[in-house]
Write a structure and sequence with these properties.
The complex is a heterodimer.
Chain A lengths: L1 H41 L7 E3 L4 E2 L9 E6 L6 H16 L7 E6 L7 H8 L5 E5 L2 H10 L4 E5 L5 E6 L2 E4 L5 E5 L5 H13 L1
Parallel strand pairs in A: 3-4, 4-5
Antiparallel strand pairs in A: 1-2, 1-5, 3-8, 6-7, 8-9
Chain B lengths: L4 H13 L8 E3 L2 E9 L7 E10 L5 E7 L3 E12 L2 E6 L4 E3 L4 E4 L4 E8 L8 E8 L3 E10 L5 H9 L1
Parallel strand pairs in B: 2-11
Antiparallel strand pairs in B: 1-2, 2-3, 3-8, 3-9, 4-7, 4-10, 5-6, 5-9, 10-11
Helix pairs in contact in B: 1-2
The chains are: A alpha+beta, B mainly beta.
């Protein structure tokens, strides 16, 4: 009898394991995979019209002109923004001429202070990096389209700082979202993601 | 979070690397201030970050309440935190506690001195004077080295990888 019970338990456990596998695989195909595909084609899409510091307009169509890296920040930012600019320069150096096709956009989340002139100066030291600004309303549309987070935090004396998403969003030559590079991500992983959008 | 250990490792590497570019330690009573440094800033950047290490060798708690420098209109103590992928920054009000017998590190990714209204861009290789005011120990001036711009923990890690 004990033997039979044990065999029954084993069979039940096997059935449960198979069911769990079916649910996971099904979940991947039905939920996760379509959502990823959806993000790839919709991230960065919206009706924002912004001005780039190279004199061009920055719209969703800009993404379709070749591989690009887009990150959001602001000039009153002591750490993450200059570090990210520095990281991008280092990645470009490591990739060599392959990276020439990569367009890098630094979109301000603080257009009230970051005018085109100020932003142009700020990104000036990083060759190939283009600043992007515009009206508060258009910047907010872009923030929504790229699904980044940004929030104003008051400081003493009427001053303020900005909390914001700190990743670099990578788009392939067709303007499809490929990967985010997280703040302080290891160089090997960042370079792998960059090569994917440059080759893809 | 599989990346939880990265900041710890990065901090350890930075501490290990610190003596190579730090000025001499400065002492004030039982406090020792070391590894004072700032990052070079992009041109016309309105703000910069200052970093240092404070060790309280005494048996009385202290508190860093203010800082100032001729190169910035004002200096605030801030805490930077990564909340998932979101960078959040908060001013530290009421000063930064320096508990007895402990070392407090102001470093990228954590506490820093926010140098606001910079009079000029911070240039790599230059130094500047920074006055620190402690609630009990009083005031002291340290010399701050200006390091390279893109100096993140990630770079420290890359060097360790060879």
């Amino acid at each position: 009898m004990a033997d039979m019970n044990m065999r029954r338990d084993v069979i039940l456990a096997l059935i449960a394991a198979v069911l769990a596998l079916v649910v996971m695989v099904g979940g991947w195909f039905l939920v996760i995979a379509p959502r990823e595909a959806e993000v790839a084609t919709t991230l960065g899409r919206g009706d924002y019209t912004l001005q780039a510091t190279d004199g061009t307009a920055f719209t969703e169509e800009t993404l379709e002109d070749g591989p690009s890296a887009v990150f959001f920040g602001f000039t009153h930012c002591p750490e993450v923004c200059p570090t990210t600019l520095g990281d991008i320069m280092t990645w470009k150096e490591e990739l060599g001429p392959d990276a020439d096709a990569l367009r890098v956009y630094f979109v301000t989340v603080d257009p009230e202070r970051d005018t085109s002139d100020i932003l142009g100066d700020y990104v000036g030291w990083a060759p190939g990096v283009v600043g992007v600004t515009g009206s508060r309303e258009e910047i907010d549309k872009a923030i929504q389209s790229f699904r980044v987070f940004s929030s104003r935090v008051p400081l003493e004396g009427g001053d303020y700082t900005m909390d914001h998403s700190a990743y670099v969003l990578l788009f392939n030559r067709d303007g499809q979202f490929s990967d985010p590079i997280r703040y302080q991500e290891e160089a090997d992983s960042a370079l792998r993601k960059l090569r994917a959008v440059l080759e893809g | 979070m599989p990346f939880k250990w990265i900041p710890t490792l990065a901090a350890a590497l930075m501490l290990a690397a610190a003596p190579t570019f730090a000025q001499d330690d400065t002492t004030l009573g039982s406090l020792t201030i070391s590894a004072a440094m700032a990052r070079a800033t992009p041109p016309h950047a309105p703000v910069g970050g200052g970093f240092l290490t404070i060790t309280n060798g005494g048996d009385e708690d202290d508190r860093l309440v203010a800082a100032s420098t001729p190169i910035a209109g004002r200096v605030e103590i801030h805490e930077m935190k990564m909340d998932g992928d979101v960078m959040r920054m908060r001013p530290v009000t009421d000063g930064l506690p320096i508990p007895a017998g402990q070392t407090v590190v102001l470093e990228p990714g954590g506490y820093h001195l926010m140098l606001m209204e910079l009079t000029d861009a911070l240039t790599e290789g230059d130094t500047f004077e920074l006055s620190l005011t402690f609630e009990k120990a009083g005031e002291v001036t340290v010399t701050v080295d200006i390091g390279p711009r893109g100096m993140s923990g990630a770079h420290g890690m890359r060097h360790s990888d060879g």
